[in-house]
Amino acid sequence: MGETTNLAELRFSHDRCVDCPIRNRAVCSYSSPRQLAELDAAKFYRDYEPGQEIIGEGEPCDAVGSVVEGVVALHRTMEDGRRQTVGLLFPSDFVGRPLRTVAPYDAIALTPVRMCLFHRKRFEEILQHNPSLERRLLEMTLDELDAARDWMVLLGRKTAIEKLASFLLILAHRTATLDNQPFDDGIAITLPLTREAIAEYLGLTIETVSRQFGVLKRNGVISLPDPRITVIEDLRALFYLAGEDPDQEFEPRPFRPAANA
Amino acid sequence: MGETTNLAELRFSHDRCVDCPIRNRAVCSYSSPRQLAELDAAKFYRDYEPGQEIIGEGEPCDAVGSVVEGVVALHRTMEDGRRQTVGLLFPSDFVGRPLRTVAPYDAIALTPVRMCLFHRKRFEEILQHNPSLERRLLEMTLDELDAARDWMVLLGRKTAIEKLASFLLILAHRTATLDNQPFDDGIAITLPLTREAIAEYLGLTIETVSRQFGVLKRNGVISLPDPRITVIEDLRALFYLAGEDPDQEFEPRPFRPAANA
DNA sequence: CCGCACAGTTGATTCAGATCAAGGATAACA
DNA sequence: TGTTATCCTTGATCTGAATCAACTGTGCGG
Questions:
Q1: A138: contact with B, CB 8 A cutoff
Q2: Which regions of chain A carry the CATH code 1.10.10.10?
Q3: N or C: where does chain A have the smaller number of CB atoms within 10 Å of the terminal CB?
């Protein structure tokens, strides 16, 4: 597990739970000031650099905790090296598997990450006599389960373009919500993932991801001022392509899958 | 929601929780006799026929509960009708989404099913003052999440033959465990699913599923005395084909994907 | 300033699985 | 005992995405 590293890159710096940026969204959000004090005493922060492993698949996992800053990917890897990202975690999301000694997947920092961690045993003790903590963990786990099942539809049934559109839509929504701007055309997404990480999440190859970015760009749905920055030019088209249909009314329009067509 | 139907087809018949066949595996398995009495008073049974809807996607869901007998599939359907099965539930598994008013997916009985149900509101009340019930629900939800993520690997990265092999392996393991027989060659699986239901679960078409059954049969990995009964003839080969590698040692052997090869 | 590594793009080709299209088997039923 | 309906299988063809293979930045270290 990682060393403490470039703190300077992290936006927030705090020590006490009451000053925590994820205080009212994380697993501790239902905890009273009194209960929070116990968590405060037990927690410790750790920072990770992009690519660094936070939890190793199949390894004994003795820490659990919340993402405070950055983006974390959960992977499962097959014997022959094929890899699938099974979860993408953002600040306030919970990492680790309480009530299990071995991690069923590995967690990798995609960006500089700060984690708020607990020793697993200690966390389970606290959980034991903190119904509000356990309730929140149950809620978050149920939400994760719903998200995982949504992703199963994407992986099992969607085409490459639908996969990418769905993914961008999620990021766009997240960005809009966080920045408190309307969920509409013009949103600029700063991708925290390489093409490879996107491919691993979408169940595609890196080449296909790149090509689908090209398709979206050529059709004016997005623009790419930089490979890592995506500007949504036509949100409705993106919805349409994602096969989601946000509100029912939407006029399909001619769409050009390749340059020549 | 369904009517009470052909009870005669169900193996078990009981009224009180203490006689329940899933008593020590279901969500209530940590509950004390005292706590069980409260559940006993609140529960009600309902039976469903194959194809019948237990919970409708997007509909208000006011019942939650456990599968007592039979097999239930959870589906998500896209606007254009593409469908993905996102969960397969067996006796003792929990159905429904506490802490949410709308069901994110629909639950369909694949076989004759008996459910042990609670009104959602009532269940949430009981949950409130039953830490052992909530603890068990958290555990089960965490396990479901792990299973969903395993399935994401299957959907995103595995080939058709690997998908079917993985699926049969899971059913074989289940069958062996339930019937208390060794997990070895000769296990006979009675498929509770049509080819179509299998296809929806594996993210394939019905034709591809059928063809992959053919491949397994031609290679002597399984035999099909009946389309709905699969006998495992070579468990090691099945592991190999699933891309799982149970214990590391396994000698790859020539494998014939098509009839002529 | 060069060389190298890394991320991304683009093109040509292949192939696994979807789609389209018949058939065959079994069971329910008139 | 045909009649219809389901479920399953099998064959021919098509196609979307993987694979194989360059090639283009862009940044970094010497």
A1: yes
A2: 158-242
A3: C
Q: Mean of the pLDDT values across residues A182-210?
A: 96
Count CB neighbours of A146 within 10 A.
18
At B13 the pLDDT is 66
**Closest nucleotide to B162, Cα to C1':** C16
The DSSP output letter for A31 is -
Strand C contacted by B243 CB (< 7 A): no
A249 vs B: CB within 8 A:
no
The distance in angstroms from the start CA to the end CA of chain B is 51
CB burial of B171-190 (b: ≥16 within 10 Å; e: otherwise) equals bbeebbeeeeeeeeeebebe
Residue with the two structure tokens 């790419």: A224
Q: How many Å apart are CA B12 and CA B22, to the nearest integer?
A: 10
CATH code of the domain occupying A158-242: 1.10.10.10
- How far is Cα B92 from Cα B27, in angstroms, rounded to an integer? 7
* Confidence (pLDDT) at B246: 56
pTM, two decimals, is 0.90
Instruction: Give the per-residue pLDDT at A164.
Output: 98
Give chain B's length. Answer: 261
Q: Name the average pLDDT for chain B.
A: 89
Using CB atoms, pick whichever of A144, A155, A202 lies closest to residue B203. A155
User: CA A195, C1' C8: Å apart?
Assistant: 8
Q: How many angstroms is C1' of C26 away from CA of A256?
A: 47
A203–B142 C-beta distance less than 8 A:
no
CA angle B162, B168, B174 (to 5 degrees): 135
B161 within 8 A of B217, measured Cβ to Cβ:
no
Work out the angle between the directed axes of helices A131-157 and A33-42 (0-180°, nearest 10): 70
Q: Which residue ranges have CB below 7 A from strand D?
A: A 159-161, 203-205, 207-208; B 191, 194-196, 206-207, 209-211, 213-214, 224, 227-228, 259
**pLDDT for B60:** 85
B84 CB contact with strand C at below 7 Å: no
CATH class of domain segment(s) B7-155: mainly beta
Query: How far is residue B219's CA from residue B182's CA, in Å, rounded to a whole number?
Result: 23
pLDDT tens column, A20-46: 999 999 999 999 999 999 999 999 999
> CATH 2.60.120.10 spans which residues of chain B?
7-155
